[in-house]
Write a structure and sequence with these properties.
Layout lengths: L4 E3 L3 H8 L4 E2 L5 E2 L5 E7 L18 H8 L2 E7 L5 H10 L3 H4 L11 H15 L5 H6 L4 E6 L13 E2 L24 H13 L3 E6 L11 H10 L5 H26 L6 E7 L31 H4 L3 E4 L7 E8 L3 H8 L16 E3 L1 E7 L13 E8 L2 E6 L19 E5 L15 H14 L8
Parallel strand pairs: 4-8, 4-9, 5-11, 6-7, 6-8
Antiparallel strand pairs: 1-12, 2-3, 5-10, 9-10, 13-14, 14-15, 15-16
Length: 458
């Protein structure tokens, strides 16, 4: 296997707490007690260190900080793609983008009608894959979708309830009505929680608000506090920080809804961000004003730490002891880990690992063109493969078909092999590949095992 992992010594004790023999579902799974509810919180476009619990001295995230204090926290979590649609698709399937076929946001940046027609075969192939949603629904869960969702309607995705209609003639593309969640309150979520409690069913809640994603239009009360304490930063950066606090407030509202209904103690809460973000600061990184260039280089859409790193949290009171885990976690590990914590067997054919049974010391990911992909040929638009091991970050460049109207090409975009020692160079500015040929060779072979364009001849 291309990603190394070690057995987790706490596995048997944890499984003894979660699983055994009397609560039955229609698929033949039996447990000693009702399985936990599952709440998956996904932020949208947020830097990995823009949280109080990750050390930020600027942004306020008191509700996520409180959640982190009750969680198993992977500080070195990563998504396998630095872009929202393939990232979300990988979270829900436990697969790399080339395995589920969704490698970009669109087949082409065409008009809406043409874009939808081109996208249908991609969505159809995606829905043939095993998904976390259907896995839980088949085991008796009610499932509610809110916020960002690219793959058609909520029902197309296997949810029993949801907000997104996915109809292109009514503005459906990546969430439509569902994108109002959080920004317009949480009433639909509260109604679903009441419904699930009345039905006495376990539930899965997909909470993926369009926050802190642009448009960065935070409430004035939040914006004012950041304007006062952040002189010298660009207006875009200040608004972005205020958006993070707004997102955090909605997470607090969600957790309060669980508490008020007495649901928190038997609810697994998982947190991850879909991809990174750095605001473009006019003082240091001037960029054109087009909407697709309002974020800094080496963040969203890139394979660098600012694009792919995110904290990953698992909170399950009484069953997971709160602690900081210094090993790695990947977004494709979320599906198998949830399945395990709910007391079910982990499906075969997933590329992610059950983190209750393994400890990662290595992971890999990729980056593709943003607004064009070739149905059935995922590697056609591959731009990078990347790897993390210890303090090392390794990147291989692959010049797949690209649409450069949607990104600025930089000098480092043309470098074929890059190696960084993040302990000494956390901003990934000094390429030391030439100093470590043995590492480059070993890491290249690992990436070649996963991504065929990097295949090395025997």
């Amino acid at each position: 296997m291309y990603e190394r992992r070690r057995p987790n010594a706490g596995t048997s004790a944890l499984h003894a707490l979660v699983g055994a023999v009397t609560f039955a579902f229609g698929v033949g799974v039996a447990l000693a007690e009702p399985p936990p509810n599952v709440v998956l919180i996904l932020s949208d476009d947020q830097a990995w260190d823009d949280y109080g619990f990750m050390g930020s001295k600027v942004v306020k995230t008191p509700h996520l900080d409180e959640l982190a204090s009750r969680s198993l926290v992977y500080e070195r979590g990563y998504v396998v793609s630095p872009l929202c649609r393939p990232s979300l698709a990988s979270i829900v399937t436990g697969l790399h983008p080339h395995e589920h076929g969704v490698v970009g946001n669109d087949v082409s940046p065409a008009r809406r009608e043409a874009r939808d027609a081109e996208d249908r075969p991609v969505r159809a192939a995606f829905h043939e894959k095993e998904s976390l949603v259907r896995f839980l629904v088949e085991r008796g869960y009610l499932a509610f979708q809110s916020g960002k969702w690219w793959e058609g309607s909520a029902r197309d995705g296997g949810f029993t309830h949801g907000m997104t209609h996915g109809e292109p003639t009514r503005g459906g593309r990546h969430g439509d009505i569902g994108l109002g969640i959080g920004r317009e309150g949480l009433a639909p979520v509260a109604e679903f929680l009441d419904l699930a409690r009345e039905a006495e069913k376990p539930f899965f809640l997909w909470y993926a608000p369009f926050l802190p994603h642009t448009p960065h239009n935070p409430p004035e009360r939040l914006l004012a506090s950041y304007l006062d304490k952040m002189p010298g930063l660009s207006e875009g950066a200040v608004k972005y920080y205020a958006m993070i606090e707004w997102f955090d407030e909605t997470c607090g509202d969600l957790l309060r809804h669980l508490d008020e209904r007495g649901l928190r103690e038997n609810t697994l809460v998982v947190y991850v961000c879909d991809n990174g973000w750095r605001a473009a600061d006019a003082a240091s990184a001037p960029l054109p004003k087009e909407w697709w260039n309002d974020y800094a280089p080496k963040s969203k859409g890139s394979p660098y730490e600012g694009g792919v790193r995110t904290p990953i949290l698992f909170s399950l009171p009484g069953k997971l002891a709160p602690r900081r885990e210094m090993g790695f976690a990947s977004s494709i590990d979320i599906f198998p880990t949830i399945a395990s914590l709910c007391g079910f067997g982990v499906p075969e054919r997933l590329s992610g690992f059950d983190l209750t049974a393994t400890q990662r010391d290595q992971l890999v990911g990729s980056a593709y063109s943003i607004h064009n992909m070739t149905p059935g040929e995922p590697f056609d638009t591959l731009q990078y493969g990347w790897l993390r091991e210890g303090d090392w970050k390794f990147l291989l460049r692959h010049h797949g078909t690209d649409d450069t109207r949607y990104r600025t090409v930089h000098e480092w975009d043309r470098v074929p092999v890059q190696l960084f020692d993040l302990s000494a160079d956390p901003e990934e500015t000094k390429n030391v590949a030439s100093e470590h040929p043995a590492l480059v060779e070993r890491f290249s072979h690992i990436l070649s095992d996963t991504f065929s364009p990097f295949a090395i001849s025997p």
